[in-house]
Amino acid sequence: MKLLDEWIWSLFKRHWPQTLTYWSVFFSFGLCIAFLGPTILDLRCQTQSTLEQITWVFVAQQFFLLVGSSLGGLFKKTRQSSLSALFTCTLIISLVFAIIPLCNQVILLAVAMAIAGLAMGVIDTIANLQLVKLFQKDSAIFLQALHFFIGLGALVSPLVAYPFLSNDCCVLGANWTANSSSSSDLEHLRESLAGHGTVINNISQYPLHTEGEVITRVSYAFWIMALINLPVPAAVLSLMYYERLLPCSSPRLIDRDSLSSTSSAGDSGQGHGSLFGCCNPAKLRGRPATFFLLHILGGAILFITDGIIGSYAGFVYTYAVSPPLLMDHKTAGCLDSIFWASITVGRLAFIYLSYRFPAPRLLTFSLVGVILVQCLVLIFYTSSVFLFIGTCLLGLCISSVFPSVLAFTEDMLDYKGCATTVLVTSASTGEMTLQLLVGSVIHSQGSYSFLVCCTVASSIGFFLFLLLLCVQHRHRNRFTDLSQNTDMKNKPQTGGS
Q: 247 Cβ partners below 8 Å, 6+ apart?
């Protein structure tokens, strides 16, 4: 155990500038992904739009995040292109934070969020790719820490925003005192919309003005977040200077060698390019069926589990304030924060567990835990106390699935490169798609169907993981047999006459 600790520490010391930079980049990702929900009503006032119009801002962010994830691999051929893309994307996030207060029309806000989503998707793919490439078989612990910083950024963003949110209607109409929504109604709307823009039933019961005097201080929150995020592109720029990758500096001799080897490795056909580049027939020719199945099953698991995270965060408040629980709005509003906090704490704990136990064991524990928690919440569906307990346990169990699946799949495929792009894109797709699916089921079948959908999805995810283990066993045996046959052919023939 001591030797393992020393080995991990020596790896970190050897690559600490790169590691800390990628971690800070993911903090920027988390900061950007969590601010929209709490601030959406103030942004509605700022743009003087309706609730139906403002929810399209969520769609723009989610869709372009998916596009950015699939295109992020385009920048991984060399370290210079990867770091240049990370610098540009993190700087874009700061600029988006700064210009959001200037967007006085909902179409301008949607364009700004689409640009931010595209930058977030590129960050998601490149940071995972570079960290896996840097540490390879030892990447699991560093990936756990990487995804911890998403949760940290997602916790910081609402804390910055909340002091500047409006307690009352922030567009004052002529008859405001007669039919305006109360502060409790606005809080209910804010918590409902915080779930990535899910559609609310009967929104006509909340009379929100679109014409009148705009009174909101949310601009200060965005400018503060822009300043908080500025050290991140500065850190990426410092790493580029440290590695002599800036145009104004010539690489050192040792760096020239390392950069040329990196470039040649990136151009050697090992899966460089975007998601579509990974589907190049020339690269796929001659691959065994297990090679494709590992990509498909790994992506499907993350499609399911990230979809569960997005759906639970999006609809747990709606479930809590509906029958049979009928929680108070403020109490139910804590559930989403508790869920993300438990995910962050879980990822912090799995940093330690990831080098004590192999990824398959951690994934088995996590996925079985997710199923058990979901089943218990189903059984005790009338208990508000157990909903809080189940929310904490679910966040802890599901927190490590993404980094563990990513490390495990890349290890099975010998770090060919395309797995990360496929997995990140699948996760983004699942987070967007399952929310829409679960939301439509809830609105047609009632709030209890939310728990049923999440339980069924978690069971499907565990079944897919068992299939992944079976395919991994066959894939490994096939290459073991091939290597043995190659050794037998190359072995010199000896024998007497």
A: none
> What is the predicted pLDDT for the residue at 225?
93
Q: What is the DSSP-derived secondary structure letter of residue 244?
A: T
Q: Tens digit of pLDDT for each residue in 280-306?
A: 666 666 678 888 899 999 999 999 999
Q: Quick one: pLDDT at residue 438?
A: 87
What are the backbone angles phi and psi of residue 266, rounded to the nearest 5°?
Answer: -70, -30
d(CA 390, CA 327): 16
In whole angstroms, what is the distance from residue 305 CA to residue 34 CA? 19
Cβ contact 382:324 at 8 Å: yes
What is the mean pLDDT of the segment spanning 432-450? 85
Give the chain's end-to-end CA distance (angstroms, integer): 54
- The token duo for 481 is 């047999």
Q: Is the dihedral angle over the CA atoms 70, 235, 351, 6 positive or is it negative?
A: positive
| 38 token code pair | 């709490």
Which segments within 90-206 are labelled E, that is strand?
171-172
Neighbours of 84 (CB within 10 A): 17
b/e per residue 242-279 (b: at least 16 CB within 10 A): ebbbeeeeebeeebeeebeebeeebeeeebbbbbebbe
d(CA 311, CA 323): 19
